[in-house]
Specification:
Blueprint: H1 23-45, H2 51-58, H3 62-65, H4 67-86, H5 92-111, H6 116-141, H7 150-179, H8 181-202, H9 216-223, H10 225-245, H11 248-254, H12 259-283, H13 288-308, H14 313-328, H15 330-341, H16 346-374, H17 379-389, H18 391-397
Keywords: Cell membrane, Membrane, Transmembrane, Transmembrane helix
InterPro entries: MFS (IPR011701), MFS_dom (IPR020846), MFS_Efflux_Transporters (IPR050189), MFS_trans_sf (IPR036259)
Pfam families: MFS_1
Length: about 425
């Protein structure tokens, strides 16, 4: 993640009135931003668990339906740095409110859409919101609480991304199975509007203080070898994961797992992901390289096991728990790699990371859709596993791993 607004470490007595120093109000604002990020990331990934019913209702193939993941991912990848630079002189509260309001409206539009074209248009708007909101949220947290609360507040905000990644999709899938995919989208839309209301009530006006320029992006990529390695790892791991995970529902159905059981399995995946996040947070301080390698091995092993075994609910649950633990460790581990690789240019490096993460989500869904339509559903598991394994030589070839940052941005609070 990036920030266009990182204030000086010590706020002087005559600091602008828009900088909160009330712990209670500041934490309420942090929670409002966290809720917004949760709604945003759940919106981006919600179709993963609902591909089959959406495709059946709108009369499109599974590969075509996967464009609901591809489109916002591509748009978010482009808008992560664009929104940060383009809105550099605008009140941050206003920018965040507009972006989260757009998410609420777009999800409600999807819930009532009668054609796939309308749904894709709504997904385009969600992509703008995801890229812009995510790129600003970390810096906003730094201005909402007193100095001694900054590290924990930042962790809470980034925790919204992790929680949405591992719990948002299973919860949305469960709602979709019980009430239909349209109510699931409507629920996320309402959640976005609730977040909007909360931010309007508890957040102050936040005038921009520091603006990232476009020139910072190629500079940090060119001058930091470890950043280049981290971006490549992000591409391989996230693309591999979403190539396979986007189609995990069709894969399980082809193996005879009932739809109701799939929702439970995805929920188990989410719980395992939270555990993986905590485990990785404890390991990366001393063993960052080894943690990255462990993620690669867990993801590849889980995908291969799902591809080669005939399984029922229990064996599928074991495999998805392993997979969930591996993917749950991805955001906190790779975020720390990036931050440690360029500690003096964290904003620009993190902006590249956000762009690549979202681009990889889109590419994974796109590659998976092409493979499902042209080869077979199981092929996505092999593609994803191979991409995950390719991380290992990158870790071995990385010249250095920077020392752990004092504040783990995406670690759980």
């Amino acid at each position: 993640m990036t920030s266009a607004d990182v204030p000086p470490p010590d706020t002087p007595p005559d600091a602008p009135p828009d900088v909160i120093r009330s712990p209670v109000r500041g934490w309420l604002a942090v929670l409002a931003v966290t809720l917004g990020i949760f709604a945003l990331m759940t919106s981006e990934l919600l179709p993963v668990g609902l591909l089959t019913p959406i495709g059946a209702d709108l009369d499109v193939s599974a590969g075509t339906t996967a464009l609901m993941v591809t489109v916002p991912g591509l748009v978010a990848a482009a808008t992560a740095p664009l929104v940060t630079v383009a809105t550099g002189r605008i009140d941050r509260r206003l920018v965040l409110a507009l972006l989260i309001g757009m998410v609420g409206a777009a999800n409600l539009a999807s819930a009532f859409a009668t054609s796939f074209a309308v749904v894709l248009a709504a997904r385009f708007l969600i992509g703008i919101s995801v890229g812009g909101f995510w790129s600003l949220a970390g810096g906003i947290a730094l201005r909402l609480v007193p100095q001694h609360h900054v590290a924990r507040a930042t962790a809470v905000v980034f925790g919204g991304v992790e929680t949405a990644s591992v719990l948002g999709v299973p919860a949305g899938t469960l709602v979709g199975d019980l009430a239909g995919w349209r109510p699931a989208f409507a629920a996320v839309g309402v959640l976005g509007l609730i977040s909007l209301a909360c931010m309007v009530v508890v957040m102050p006006k936040l005038a921009p203080e520091r603006v990232m320029t476009f020139g910072d992006l190629p500079r940090v990529f060119r001058t930091h070898a470890a950043v280049r390695a981290g971006i490549a790892m992000t591409f391989l791991v996230v693309t591999g994961h979403f190539t396979a995970y986007t189609f995990v529902r069709p894969v399980l159905r082809d193996d005879g797992v009932a739809d109701g059981m799939i929702s439970v399995l995805l929920l188990a995946f989410g719980v395992a992901g939270i555990c993986g996040n905590f485990i990785a947070g404890a390991l990366i301080a001393r063993r960052l390289r080894e943690t990255v390698c462990g993620i690669s091995v867990l993801l590849a092993a889980a995908m291969a096991a799902l591809a080669v075994t005939d399984h029922g609910g229990l064996s599928a649950a074991v495999i998805l728990v392993i997979w969930g633990m591996g993917y749950g460790a991805v955001p906190v581990t790779l975020q720390n790699w990036i931050l440690n690789a360029a500690p003096t240019a964290a904003e620009a490096a993190s902006s590249l990371y956000v762009s690549m993460f979202n681009l990889s989500i889109a590419l994974g869904a796109l590659v998976g859709g092409l493979a499902v339509d042209a080869v077979s559903t199981t092929s996505v598991l092999w593609i994803g596993g191979v991409l995950a394994v390719l991380v290992l030589p990158l870790v071995g070839g990385a010249r250095r791993t920077a020392r752990p940052a004092p504040a783990t941005a995406s670690a759980p609070p």
